[in-house]
Design goal:
Layout (H helix, E strand, L loop, with lengths): L5 E8 L2 E8 L9 H10 L40 H15 L18 E2 L4 H4 L18 E6 L5 H8 L18 E2 L8 E12 L5 E12 L11 E6 L6 H5 L3 H7 L15 E3 L8 E3 L10 H13 L18 H4 L16 H12 L12 H12 L10 E2 L13 E2 L7 E3 L17 E3 L9 H5 L13 H6 L6 H9 L2 H12 L2
Antiparallel strand pairs: 1-2, 3-5, 4-8, 6-7, 9-10, 11-12, 13-14
């Protein structure tokens, strides 16, 4: 899409057409002419698959972790941090692992949990800083939860969405998220229930594959039925690696990949998401979360504190977490708010440390980049059209807030745009700009270490896919053509493509 001085996005929000105008420079403002030539050369898509590209193994730039690819592979700090920053990272890590307790408590720096919550620590959902999964039969949900939202019901609610004051509207009783745990003296909201149906798929060579199609519901709702208009959107916790680098991608580069009207006719119409954080005067590009609903790592962290743990912060000053106005018993419970340590149950110092930690978890180095089968699989990935959305590489902004993130060649394999993924993956839930069939393109770096780090191979937003092949076969909508090309490949070529993904 041509990049104009002002990018005009037409949005369909809650059935109301709205136009948001986002001022933007026509090109990257952080680069010299020499820089632009270098960036253009190094980010040109690969055309020779006989050998790896230069620096391809260092997929997180100079911050790439080259430590052993074991269970701690996602938990190392960026290799180019200063010694003082390493200390900050370790302090943030301690807070990320911290188990919060219900108030009132003698340890004021650790109380404030709930009253309703999904986990007691950030690490509980992002175990080893990796990917969450759906619960096994009979197991409580820990690293997966249900987002709850309903369409706007009034002109005022529509205006709040149109002006990016909220991404959507919560269930009138259960709020924006189903909380499956509660502090003593209060009932949890209910239980996440999943039923699976096996759906057979036949590939081009006759190979039979079974896909797992889930249906979601809330069992034993403690506060009455959910609103009839409320949609349930299951989400597993995302891996934490490379978030500071994603934040450092220049806006111009994201807009350069957007084509909301499919002007080039290739069937791919990625859209830039917009979001307004607690500290933002105007909407910014959404980059984080399954629907790109957060514009910054800090905003994403603050919302997770509030929604998942019931912990307030200066960015999300909600001491009762996700308690709704209808949950009077919840609102009557004590909170961990105090003034000695600063505003919120997670005050400024805590938020700054957790944000720094989250921004600086290193991307692990690629493995086997020169393996012939990996290189052939890379060519299959390109030939199938997967790179239309999974953009291989960027060079981050020279103006990144942290010098460690600045002017780095990175390989996330994502355009971070919203794409229609078809009815099969639709959750029916609108989140800001994203409609009920749209999802942010997931970065693929580190995906080959999922089993090593997280102990499973369950992928997509709800973990329905039990393998990388199943994840590919669930792709629809804008990704249907690429999915079909994969399905028609001979088995040896399909295996090579999977082998390539496993090297990331």
């Amino acid at each position: 899409m041509p990049f104009t001085a002002r990018v005009i996005l037409t949005l369909s929000l809650a059935g109301v057409a709205a136009t948001a105008v986002l001022a933007a420079a026509p090109e990257r403002t952080d680069l010299t002419a020499e820089d632009r030539a270098r960036v253009a050369a190094v980010t040109t898509p690969a055309s020779d698959f006989a050998e790896p590209e230069r620096f391809e193994n260092m997929q997180g730039g100079a911050g790439t972790s080259t430590k052993l690819p074991n269970r701690d592979a996602f938990s190392h700090f960026s290799a180019n941090l200063t010694f003082a920053e390493e200390e900050t990272f370790k302090l943030g890590n301690a807070l990320f692992r911290k188990q919060w307790v219900a108030p009132p408590s003698s340890t004021q720096a650790s109380d404030g949990l709930g009253p309703l919550f999904n986990a007691r620590a950030c690490q509980n959902c992002h175990l080893k800083d990796g990917r969450g999964r759906p619960p096994a039969p009979g197991e409580p949900a820990v690293s997966m939860f249900l987002r709850l939202a309903r369409p706007a019901a009034t002109d005022a609610e529509m205006a709040e969405i149109r002006d990016f004051l909220t991404a959507n509207h919560p269930d009138p009783i259960y709020g924006a998220q189903l909380q499956t745990a509660a502090v003593p003296g209060l009932q949890a909201e209910g239980t996440l229930s999943i039923e699976y149906e096996e759906v057979p798929v036949t590939l081009g060579d006759g190979t039979e594959v079974s896909l797992r199609k889930p249906t979601y519901s809330v069992s034993d709702p403690a506060y009455g039925p959910l609103d009839e208009a409320t949609t349930l959107s299951p989400r597993v916790a995302n891996p934490m690696i490379g978030m500071g680098l994603i934040q450092a991608i220049h806006p111009a580069d994201l807009f350069a990949h957007a084509d909301p009207e499919d002007a080039d006719g290739d069937g791919i119409s990625g859209r830039v998401a917009l979001a307004r954080g607690h500290r933002d005067d105007a909407p910014r590009i959404g980059r984080f979360g399954w629907k790109a609903q957060s514009a910054s790592v800090r905003e994403q962290s603050a919302e997770a504190f509030a929604g998942d743990l019931g912990i307030s912060s200066p960015d999300a000053p909600r001491p009762h977490g996700d308690c709704s106005a209808a949950q009077v018993d919840c609102l009557a419970m004590p909170t961990g708010e105090q003034t000695d340590l600063g505003e919120g149950e997670a005050p400024e110092d805590v938020m700054a440390l957790v944000t720094f930690y989250s921004e600086n978890l290193a991307v692990p180095a690629r493995r086997d980049v020169d393996d012939p089968e990996v290189l052939r699989g890379k060519q299959m990935f390109y030939d199938a059209g997967c790179t239309s959305c999974h953009t291989p590489k960027f060079v981050t902004s020279r103006e990144a807030e942290n010098p460690a993130h600045a002017f780095q060649l990175i390989w996330p394999y994502s355009d971070f745009l919203l794409h229609d993924m078809g009815e099969g993956l639709a959750d029916g839930q609108e989140v800001g700009v994203a409609d009920g069939q749209e999802w942010r393109t997931q970065p693929l770096w580190g995906i080959g270490l999922t089993e090593t780090v997280s102990g499973h191979t369950q992928f997509l937003h709800d973990g329905r896919a039990r393998s990388l092949q199943e994840a590919i076969l669930w792709h629809g909508g804008e990704a249907q053509a690429a999915r079909d090309r994969y399905a028609e490949l001979p088995k040896a070529d399909r295996d090579a493509l999977i082998r390539f993904l496993e090297s990331l």
